[in-house]
Amino acid sequence: MPAVTSEYGEVTLRPFVESDEDEVASWFADAGELRFFAGRRLRWPLDAEQWRGIRSDETISAWTAVVGDDPTPVGHAELVTESPSTVRLARYAVAPHSRGLGLGRAILTQIFAIARADGFGTLRLAVHPDNTPAIVTYRRFGFVPASDPDIRFADRLTMAVQLD
User: Fold this and answer.
1) Phi-psi region of 124 (alpha: psi -120 to 50; beta: other; left: phi over 0)
2) What predicted TM-score, i.e. pTM, was given to this entire model?
3) Per-chain mean pLDDT for the chain
């Protein structure tokens, strides 16, 4: 996956691996922050068993964002296959110390490229309605409120964008 330039440097996505778990988990200080990130699927505190569940789920491709040659994760995103034509962006976060530097845009650019390369025509997501910075970013990428909100995420705003 080619790098995307941000104010922080060259950002690339690589597959999420076991050695990323502790760093990504450290970004969430409490159960509330974890719920903002993961909804109801994950429980506080994050542990190895929950991460194994994500890595072993064949419908999920989990990604870690890094900058340059530094292997330290600065972002995390997962793509969940919903159907042959639709994929959902799930559990997407930028490390707290790296926010506001353009990493979110760089990660989304690469997520779009992965989804297109995998042949998906629609990218969906569910975002907490109070997460204004994320919603603004998603709108900049063409996401709009979905005409068919996902009832699994009734407390979230379901958004979608066409990739073709």
Assistant:
1) beta
2) 0.92
3) 92
Mean pLDDT of 95-111: 91
DSSP class of residue 131 equals: -
User: 52 CB contacts (<8 Å, ≥6 apart)?
Assistant: none
**Could you give the CA distance from residue 103 to residue 109 in angstroms, rounded to a whole number?**
10
Q: Residue 136 is part of a domain; what is its CATH number? A: 3.40.630.30
d(CA 119, CA 29): 36
Sheet holding 9-15, edge to edge: 4-6, 9-15, 60-67, 70-81, 86-94, 122-127, 157-162, 144-145
How many separate helices (H) and strands (E) can be counted in the chain?
5, 8
DSSP string, 37-100: HHTTSS-SSP-HHHHHHHHH-TTEEEEEEEETTEEEEEEEEEEEE-SSSEEEEEEEEE-GGGTT
Total residues found in the chain within this entry: 164
| Nearest in space to 116 (alpha carbons), one of 70, 163, 81, 153 | 163
Give the count of domains, the chain.
1
Q: What is the pLDDT, as a whole number, of residue 1?
A: 63
Domain span at residue 105 reads 4-162
Burial 18-47 (b: 16+ CB within 10 A, else e): eebbeebbebbeeeeebbebbbeebeeebe
